[in-house]
Amino acid sequence: MRDSKEQCQRSADRFSLACGNDNVEIALPKAAEVIKTQKNMTAMTQEEIDNVLSAEGVMSPSLYETIDDAEKILVILPDATRKSGAEKILPQLTAYAENKGKQLDFIIAVGTHRQPTIAELNKIMTPDIYEKYADNIIRHDSENYADMDFYGITKRKTTVLLNKAYRLHDTVITIGSVSYHYFAGYGGGRKLIFPGIAGHKAITANHKLAIDPMLRKRHDKAVTGNLKHNPVHDDIVDALMIARSGHTFYAVNTILTEDGNIADMVCGDLFMSHIEACSRLDSYCLYEAENEFDLLFVSAGGYPKDINMIQSQKYLDRVLPLAKEGGRIVFFAQCPDGYGNKFFEDFFDVRYSAEMLKGLMDDYKINRQTAFNLKSNLERFEVYLYSDFSDHDCERMGFLKLADISAVSVLAEGADRIGFVPYPADLFVK
To answer: What is the SS3 assignment for 297?
Structure first.
């Protein structure tokens, strides 16, 4: 067991950081403070999970009562970049639906991400369920507008386009983990439908709301852990209210441990169960920062959280309130898929964040905003990256390449206060 998981530990000079599917061992000449919340997450038993699914949900009947009343069921699952604990839920769901003779189809909420591989689908759905339902998996392509239905336009002028599969099913079941999102406030729940199975134009319009056009900067309310007056979240809710007619929803919102096990679950109404799950997530993860660190060691959390830089940078963004302005951060993110997509990658041809912002205002593209956010952060801090990226790519983004782990000792020698964040996904710094 890693040092970082010892319940009573408050400091360590030796610790492990997840990077890809492995751990990197760190030894320092002085101790680092371990930064984690006091409330431990423990895995629910299968019986406890089953009990939640069998009970009434938040402003909703149980999962099984929902299936009883359904004609055609669409199950929406997150893609390979996000664990959900679905493997603990799908066996019961599919067995019950089969017993009741219900038609069951699946769609992966890829948004603008790439399609999952067969290996990833086996992992998301379990091999048995994937084999049984392989022909019932609908492939969502956000650029294929022939497969989209138009529902209307939100108050913020976002065109609501959803995969046709949504219209063809009267009952929609979402299974996703509730986690922090750096501009939508929280992930999971409603996001699996919109933007998860939305058209590219709709997703672009929604994400663009994270930029304040009047102040020409990131919107003050479009931040981690905030739903109140968050324009991105409000637009998602508006889009789903427009498109909800004729549908019954049942949302499974999971809260996961560091190992990907289900620590808590809130099910039921698409909106109200998600709000309750967000509140519970805060009860586990809220961390009141007292002082700032001049050196931080941070991991994105290993695979799949560090599958690419688009995903990894979220966890760097998460811990910045802990660092002194201009301080040093050592960031571990393997990124086997590299940048993540071309819009994100090519935007680093623009050298400075101020120029990036001008480009965003003139021609907004998905994930350009992510590149802008990362570049803005890297201009404020000295961040060393341990990853698969080359020296050139690190420099292009604004990182310093860390090729030799032993170099961290030199950084530690010159630091007055060192922090180690074992798992930033479980940390909400205020």
So the answer is: strand
Sequence-distant (≥ 6) Cβ neighbours of residue 307 within 8 angstroms? 80, 81, 335, 336, 337
Residues 6+ apart with CB under 8 A from 8: none
Would you state the structure tokens that stand for residue 323, as one six-digit string? Answer: 């660092």
**Once rounded to an integer, what is the mean pLDDT over residues 340-352?**
94
The rounded distance, in Å, linking the Cα atoms of 264 and 163 is 30
From the number of C-beta atoms within 10 Å of its C-beta (0-12, 13-18, 19+), residue 231 rates as buried
Sign of the dihedral through C-alpha 112, 113, 117, 123? negative
3-class secondary structure, 190:
helix
Supply φ then ψ for residue 129, to 5 degrees: -75, -40
Confirm if 327 and 354 have CB atoms less than 8 A apart: no
d(CA 120, CA 81): 10
Q: What is the pLDDT of residues 370-391, one digit of tens each?
A: 999 999 999 999 999 999 999 9
Residue 321 has pLDDT above 90, yes or no: yes
- 67 with 102: CB under 8 angstroms? yes
Contact criterion met (CB below 8 Å) for 342 and 370:
no
CA distance 206 to 366: 10
Q: Determine how many CB atoms are found less than 10 A away from the CB of residue 404.
A: 9
Examine the pLDDT at 113 and tell me if it is beyond 50: yes
Distance CA 58, CA 276 (A): 8
Query: Rounded to whole angstroms, how far apart are CA atoms 45 and 50?
Result: 9
Q: What angle do CA 264, 267, 269 make, to 5 degrees?
A: 145
pLDDT tens string 21-80: 999 999 999 999 999 887 778 999 999 999 999 999 999 999 999 999 999 999 999 998
**End-to-end CA distance of the chain, in Å?**
29
Closest-CA residue to 268 (of 243, 249, 294): 249
The answer for residues whose C-beta is within 8 angstroms of residue 70's C-beta and 6 or more apart is 102, 170, 171, 248
CB 81 within 8 A of CB 307: yes
Distance CA 366, CA 112 (A): 8
